[in-house]
Amino acid sequence: VARETLSAADLERFEEEAIPLTASLYGAALRMTRNPSDADDLVQESYLRAFRSWHQFEPGTNLKAWLFRILTNLYISEYRKKQREPVMVPAEDSSDFDLYQALGGGTDGAARSAESEALESLLDEDVKQALSDLPENFRLAVLLADVEGFSYKEIAEIMNVPIGTVMSRLHRGRKLLQKALMKLARERGLVKERLD
Amino acid sequence: LKPGCKEVIDKLYLYLDRELPDDEFSRLKHHIETCGGCLDRYGVEAEFKELVRRRCSEREPHALVQQIREALHREVD
């Protein structure tokens, strides 16, 4: 397939619109590959592919979602096979984990202030690591929804799955992440043990 | 649990993620604002979502951006 010729004017517009999104794409690539060097390569290759397909981008549609779709597809086709990820089923079922209960919810405002105290004391690296440790499908759903703020419909398009699947992955992913971070906060002594 | 609490619990993520139709959103909002337990539960989930966003965001990778710009310019040379 002959590549359409891209001009300096195309490049100027692409850089102006796409380069400001590098922090988001790089963050996603880091969480996906869990390796800074692979993340660099993945982001750079995504930008090159995006530019080569620039004529296919419909102006006025969501550029960030379009770039994330390219990044995600490239990750799945080229990088994932390099990762030695064991079967992606968490060892234990956390779908019923209830952060509100775990924080002693029941008294007005009690759970919320316990959360602020415990989880705010964790370091950025702790939260990043806990997110990176989630099984891939859950990790991507949480990343796209909570870090990047995409809608369910956009996530469904980026991950190429139905919206119902997005919702269940997001639900389980959040529960797993909450459980992992609460466990870490307990180990660090950041949570007051409940007496019941 | 008061009437309405179960609906809030079931749809909390949809509410939090702004994925509900306007009428449902308003109904849940009214309940949450007038129910201490649901307000606390909502606050916990909203704070958690915000915590993940804040703690997992990255700064612009300056060196990488420079490499990307150079690679892009080679595409049109």
Structural account:
The complex is a heterodimer of chains A (196) and B (77). Helices cover 64% and strands 0% of the residues of chain A. Chain A has 196 residues and is mainly α. The longest helix of chain A has 25 residues, at 163-187. The model of chain A has no long low-confidence stretch (mean pLDDT 88). Helix content of chain B is 79%, strand content 0%. Chain B is built from four helices and no strands. The longest helix of chain B has 21 residues, at 36-56. Chain B is elongated. Chains A and B meet through α1, α2, α3, α6 and α7 of A and α3 and α4 of B.
Biggest sheet layout of chain B: none
The number of helical segments of chain A is: 10
How many H/I helices of chain B?
4
Give the overall silhouette of chain B.
Answer: elongated
What overall form of chain A do the CA principal axes indicate? elongated
Largest interface, Cβ cutoff 8 Å: A-B, 56 and 36 residues
Percent of residues in helices of chain A comes to 55-70%
Could you name the ranges of chain B where pLDDT drops below 50 across 5 or more consecutive residues? none
Number of strands of chain B: 0
